User: What shape does this take?
Amino acid sequence: SFLDECIGHREKALETRAREEHPGEGELIHPQHLTALLDRHADDDALFTADCGSPMVWILRHIRANGRRRTLTSLLHGTMANALPQALGLQ
Assistant: This one.
């Protein structure tokens, strides 16, 4: 059924995400791992923002929103340096 197919896609996406969240070798820090650590240790009502590009993708993929914990990003084309003003507004 459609629902079973969607559940299968979600499970596959979660497996892929878990594989990405590993420490780097030596002194290398994988951003996905760092973001997962932030997610693990942040309060349940934490607010996250990130600049556009890869940082935005990392928080949208690796930060778990729960209704009280939220993410704020700019999904407009060409936005630059939006995280600091957004963080000030959130504060």
Observations:
- The first strand starts at residue 47 and ends at 49.
- The chain has a mean pLDDT of 91.
- Residues 2-90 form a domain with the Rossmann fold fold (CATH 3.40.50.970).
